[in-house]
Structures are given as structure tokens and as C-alpha cells.
Amino acid sequence: MSIYNDHKDLDREFAKLIGYMSLTNQLNPDGSYGTIPTYSTTWDGMRQVIEAMQRRGYRPRFADQISHWKARFYNESNGQPTSWVCGESAPYAVCLAAIRALQGEAKS
Fold first, then answer.
1. pLDDT at position 26 over 70
2. 22 to each of 16, 25, 42, 65, 90, how far by Cα in Å?
């Protein structure tokens, strides 16, 4: 079970963890910057998550489990895999696994 209420919450959390808002200069009507990509709902968003994680030294692992997808990341610098997480789609599971990996890194 995820602590995120919807996909937009998940997308915002990943964007925050990778510093996405500092990478854009698009001003929104509400005064915020940037349009957060749909990391957790599209295959292109999943590709962006994987590329961002690879730049940080992580390799993805994910698998179709018939009724759900599972994903985790393997940290190449310390040799440690993250825990498997499950989601209803591959993009969702990969995005959630990336967030867990980055949150674990922040706690270290």
C-alpha cells in the first residue's frame, strides 16, 4: 500500500527528490515553476525515472507479476538493492521504487 493519495502526489515527490523544479524555468499561473512530468503513469515518464536513477548510480529491476508489477533499484556504489515495491502498473512501481531508494539515500 502506498502513502501517496494519487499519481500526482507520487510524481511531485519524485520531482522534489531529484530537484526537478530547479531544472525548469516555466512559470505557472499560480506562481510555481514547471510542469511535473507524468512519471508514474506513462512509459515515457518511467523512462525518465530510470534515466534519472541511472545518472545517480542505480540500476532498475522490475517484473510483471500477472496482477501487478514489482520494482526495485540496485545501488552500484554500495552494492545494495532496495526493497521490492508493488504497483498496478510498471511506471507506478518504478516511480515508487525510485522514491524509496532516494529517500533511503537521504536518511544515510
1. no
2. 9, 8, 23, 36, 27
